[in-house]
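Chapter review. Work through the record for HAD phosphatase, family IIIA before attempting the end-of-chapter questions.
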Amino acid sequence: MFSNYKPTWMVDAIYKVTPEQLNKHGIKAVLTDLDNTLIAWNNPDGTDELRIWLESMKKANIPVIVVSNNNAERVGRALQAFELDYVARALKPFAKGINKACKDLGVEKDAIVMVGDQIMTDIRAANRSGVKSILVRPVIDTDSWKTQLNRMMERKIMKYLLNKHPEMKWQGEIK
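Structure tokens for HAD phosphatase, family IIIA:
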């Protein structure tokens, strides 16, 4: 029933995903949500950990594109210091934004992964578009009011998925 929300992997944080892990799974590009995945939703400055992670992806020639439901002004302002491409108003949980990013990359979908902190938007959109997905824990425990509504439903879906798929466990890396 809720299998469309099942992530490929569950990792504690995006920063724990390394180029070596991605290469092992044939991943050549990363799509990522913005708020509470890369940065705290209420602090667009990012962290040193984010800068180090982005540099490791750049050195490994693994492009990173942000796919966000936020408007272009918000996403552009948040990413200004990081020099990342992005797709704004992605309309997740629909596949539109992910499909656009995949087309822009020119990489086959089986070599792309979407990383996000919400199964209702990020993981559902990844599954709809046919790319692998990594569910990460939110960077901080608070959410914007819009996301709080999703989190209530998300808890029910996760409970169902964890009961049906006991292999779903939080990991320190993708295995």
